[in-house]
Write a structure and sequence with these properties.
102 residues; mainly alpha; 2 domains; 4 helices; 75% helix; elongated
Length: 102
């Protein structure tokens, strides 16, 4: 009958919704575990930590170029934030591995 068909359809839709919700939850859990693991790995390396800080700091300048607190541009940020020596160390030692942190 039509009522039985509607009941079967409703149950199938409910089951599909349940399966999608479970898959979404598993995907979110996997993303969270990956982010946690990446954070722990970055935290183990001083150079990686410095590079992550630089990447976060540079983000506003990637969208537009602004004169910012007397700096000539984004190229002056590492020295302004980390100091000349640490900026040079992070740049020389870490830029080769920067793409592996993304």
């Amino acid at each position: 009958s039509a009522a039985d068909a509607l009941l079967v359809k409703a149950r199938a839709e409910a089951e599909a919704t349940k399966i999608r919700a479970k898959a979404d939850a598993e995907a979110e859990k996997t993303r969270a575990e990956g982010a946690k693991e990446a954070g722990l790995l970055i935290g183990e390396s001083d150079v990686a930590t410095s590079l992550a800080k630089l990447r976060i700091t540079y983000e506003p300048f990637n969208k537009s170029n602004h004169f910012f607190f007397g700096l000539e541009g984004p190229g002056d940020l590492p020295k302004a934030i980390l100091g000349k020596q640490l900026a040079q160390e992070a740049g020389a030692a870490g830029m080769a591995g920067a793409s592996s942190l993304r």
